[in-house]
Amino acid sequence: MDAQETNVKAQQGVTPEVSPISDSSDSCLATPAPSSKDLTWCVGSKSMNYTATASHIDVLSDTGSLLGKMFSVAYVKDGGPQDVAQRPVTFCYNGGPGSSSVPINFGGIGPRRVKTDGTKHLSLPAVTEDNPFTLLCQSDLVFLDALGTGYSTIARDVDPATLWNIDGDADAFCRAIIAWLDANNRWGSPVYLFGESYGTIRNSVLMRLLGEKGVPVRGVVMLSALFDWVQTLPGEDLYYLGMLPTFAATAKYFGRAGAEVDEETWFNDAMEFTETVYATALLRGDRLSAEKKSEVAEQMSELIGLPAELIEQHNLRIDLVTFRRNIVADKGLVAGRLDTRFTTAAPLPVQNSAGFFASEDPADDAVESVWATAFRAFLHEIGYKGAPIYLSQNYAVVNRSWKWQHMEPGIDQVVPAPNVTYDIAVALKRNPTMRIAVLGGRYDAATTYWNALHDFSCMFLPPELKERITFHLYSCGHMAYVDEPTLKQMSKDMEAFYAEM
């Protein structure tokens, strides 16, 4: 789910209990039969009948050989054959790489949702409800698990390395989507993509690939987006620039800065400081005078709530681990990463591994396991007989094995640190009727909002194409749907987005 996941647990040798590769003696990949159930969504005076179906999609090569079987959960609103055939269908997924689609399904936009309570840690039994803000009101939904996650499996004679990379992953999803449209007679339906985190990198390549395969995409939703991999690399100034507004929002949330300023203004001021003062200071390196360095450190201290001396010692470059360790250290707490509003008790002094600390995230711990159990209960409810182990997260294998190289369109060479905005620009120029919605959170320290804005501004699109792109910033973290007020507003924004032509 997290596009910048360092996968420290994988580096420590943790392995999954079940291999994502089929253990059958051939490449047929025996899987359970599909299972469907007719259900009714009821919220207040509103109701909607729909069918939920759990099944596998054969992912086939151009020659018809099996690459893998992609697990899917589809929700299709009841209606006449004509209505169903022309209703929008949205293909949804999380990222990682190595995450199943459970979070965005049972955490966010599916017809069932686990209730959350602010930044409190969820517990069992999971409290599920008909989701008042489900995207099923606007579109049929198909949640897809990437090959090697969930119940999705790779054919025995297929090298996972051909799939666990940017281009191979997008190609597999392209083939699965086309197969689903064909099997369900949905060629008349407007196609939408909804990806979160690494899912936005997948979106960027997939929207181009689908067009090349004769599937025009109507709309693309980029939730908690990452496009330029350079911003994740150690020592890159784009990383520090993106982090500063998020640090400022977090400092205000914990009462360490911005006491007299509203949340939106404080964040906007931090964005302005990032571009007009901070960027210049970073670019000058040690050519920045001592006086100016101290001045900028003082300004940063007022914004992000850390001591100016600490900031100056770090040469104005505060990384996320340093910030998380220090912002609420006086309370014996550390802040989260996916959502910096979440906190947990600081590790013991003996637990001084930076790698261990980076992999521990109270925002993730608070919700992930409860979502997974609620989802497994739902599969039993609709009669799906899956394997005992469902790989809701398979970072230990998929993420550790991932290759980040990408054949970028128009460059004609494999780029080791890809920027998939080139794919977006190509897709949008080829299909200028497409719309894109970019959604981000102020407290998301995994895929920071400033970087997404910056990446799109460097596409240099003509005005008529820029008008096809909308940006929405919320008071939430990486998994925006954890925050119910955000989910409510996001639902309104999606209603408007799907109504646009």
How would you characterize this protein structure?
This protein has 501 residues and is an alpha/beta fold. The protein contains 18 helices and 16 strands. It has helices spanning 8-11, 81-86, 102-109, 166-183, 198-212, 237-253, 263-284, 290-304, 308-313, 320-326, 354-359, 362-365, 368-381, 395-401, 421-430, 449-457, 463-466, 484-499; strands at residues 35-43, 46-60, 66-77, 89-93, 112-114, 128-130, 140-144, 153-154, 191-197, 217-225, 333-335, 343-345, 406-407, 414-415, 435-441, 469-474. Strands 1, 2, 3, 4, 7, 8, 9, 10, 15 and 16 form a 10-stranded mixed beta sheet that branches. Strands 5-6 form a two-stranded antiparallel sheet. Strand 1 and strand 2 form a beta hairpin. The longest helix has 22 residues, at 263-284. It is globular and about 70 Å long. It starts with 7 loop residues before the first helix and ends with a helix. 48% of the residues are buried.
